[in-house]
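Task: sequence in, structure out. Protein: Elongation factor G 2.
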Amino acid sequence: MEEEIRATLRRRVVESVRGGEAPFVPVLCGSAFKNKGVQPLLDAVVDYLPSPGDVSPISGLDPRKPDEVRVERPADDDAPFSALAFKIMTDPFVGQLTFIRVYSGVMKSGASVFNPVRGRRERVGRLLKMHANKREEIRQVYAGDIAAAVGLKSVGTGDTICDQQSRSCSSRWSSPARWSRWRSSPRPNRTRRSWRRRWPD
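Result:
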């Protein structure tokens, strides 16, 4: 019975991601601060969320033919290489790290890639698999992998990198409106009582 429920939930989530009639999102409760519900959340990621092969192919444009039909890149190692740079950070030991999510194809360390957004060709120095604050050097990445690349100097967040012979450019991210959030926490009990009187809710 439990396996049937998991299979049904996973099927509904995958259908929703593929463009189903209504979004379907499992909701779990927990507290990261108190380490409550973290393991069930990680299990739910494995059980319910779609794999790279479950989602529809990523579509983009060939920058050399902007008016042509959109190019699709399925999550397949044999397809031309394409990836999205989704995060840039600086590491004190290795320098700038570009976090990439590989949509299709295979990329090896030392390979040359093309950035159609900037119109530049770059060479990947090293590839790292990140584990919290630990790094593991790897030789290549495959479709669906997430890794950090060293040596990409002109790539920005939201840029596409791809094979130069089979160029494709995915849609750039739209930056959300700026917002800020703050929180105050009174320390002395007397201050807390005063705050409760002013803001009882």
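The mean pLDDT is 81.
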